[in-house]
Amino acid sequence: MMTSYKNDPRKFIARFESRCSKCGMPIKKGITGYYWPATQTVLCAVCGEPEYQEFLSMAADEDFFNGIGNPY
To answer: Is residue 28 part of a domain?
Structure first.
């Protein structure tokens, strides 16, 4: 399990319609999106997935550096 903090981005299933902060694409109810609490940014799956995966990779590296978890 990865260490988590209050402002970590998270994946969500939309409960209401919104728009991607990056490309403006509508995020319809029931569709996957990504939320960054620190900046209150919502991204669609296309824009958010690469950034979210990059965050997960950096968080795993940080945990490994701190002696938590297995990198493999």
So the answer is: yes
